[in-house]
Design brief:
Pfam families: Abhydrolase_6. InterPro entries: AB_hydrolase_1, AB_hydrolase_fold, AB_hydrolase_sf. A hairpin with a 6-residue loop joins β1 and β2. This protein has about 280 residues and is α/β, with parallel strands linked by helices. The radius of gyration is 17 Å and the shape is globular. α2 runs parallel beside α11 and α6 runs antiparallel to α8. The chain has an 8-stranded mixed beta sheet with strand order 1-2-4-3-5-6-7-8, sandwiched between helices.
């Protein structure tokens, strides 16, 4: 994969004013010239951004013959960082799915017909946001393919996030993340503080996602350091038509650890369900 700094910067910015305070969102269109193609919308992980995806969204869009829409959520990348002292609430993922994402689609002029043909591609927190969006707006997408999502909190998840905090504060990890975020503390502590909030231990969206009707593909590695296969099993119990892909020798980032297998699985899934 190419280094993000070596790529031509096609990032744009758009303001959203519908929330508690206005924010500026960085976004990119991929294959924008394919005006009639369906949209694949990418939702990044808890420490992610446009830059941290690197060239995988472009690779997948080329494979799917889709346009791609990639953006950095507020607090991440080159989007507006968290305000000083702001702590994200337990429902922070719900707010991204129910408020920020629809507001972004509205601001970009993506109407109902385009949304009905849209595929959500999410990783980790982004996968969870995709599930929450699909449960709230079941007609506003064609389907979703997600990797390593969370639908409840496991002890190993908390342990992994606690270890990430120690690593961030005692190693060069913070310096490495600076390449992907204008305000690296905004990105890290927004995510880390939210997940380590004691109230978050009781967070569980299993019942909420039972309303999902659109095609759903869920991918996870057996060596995921943040969650067990119980996540996929609970998703399957809530959404019976979900297709599961469980990968060996794969950790928390299947699109990096098992790129070919993930691309093959998503391409076959979309091809099967595309009208």
């Amino acid at each position: 994969m190419t280094d993000p700094a070596a790529s031509i910067d096609t990032t744009r910015f758009i303001g959203l004013n519908g929330g508690a305070y206005p924010v500026r969102i960085e976004y990119q269109w991929l294959n924008a010239e394919q005006a009639d193609a369906p949209i694949a919308l990418f939702l990044h992980e808890g420490l992610g951004s446009i830059a941290l995806w690197k060239d995988w969204p472009q690779m997948l869009c080329d494979r799917l013959n889709c346009r791609g829409l990639v953006y950095s959520r507020p607090g991440y990348g080159r989007s507006t960082p968290r305000r000083p002292g702001e702590q994200w609430p337990v429902e922070f993922l719900h707010r991204q799915a129910h408020d920020v994402l629809p507001a972004l689609l509205d601001a970009l002029g993506i109407g109902a017909e385009e949304r009905s043909r849209m595929w959500l591609i999410g990783h980790s927190d982004g996968g969870t946001i995709a599930l929450l969006y699909a449960s709230a707006f079941p007609e506003a997408l064609a389907g979703l393919a997600i990797m390593a999502p969370h639908v409840f909190v496991e002890p190993m998840t908390v342990e992994g996030i606690e270890k990430a905090r120690i690593t961030y504060e005692t190693t060069s990890f913070k310096d490495k993340l600076r390449a992907y975020h204008d305000d690296v503390d905004s990105a890290f502590y927004g995510w880390n503080d939210a997940w380590l909030n004691p109230a978050f231990l009781h967070w569980d969206i299993t019942e909420e996602i039972t309303s999902i009707r659109q095609p759903l593909l869920v991918i996870q590695g057996y060596d995921d350091e943040y969650a067990s296969m119980l996540q996929l099993d609970k998703i399957k119990s809530a959404v019976d038509h979900a297709q599961l892909v469980k990968l060996t020798q794969c950790r928390h980032s299947p699109h990096r650890d098992a790129t070919n297998e993930v691309n093959d699985a998503i391409a076959a899934f979309v091809r099967t369900h595309q009208s």
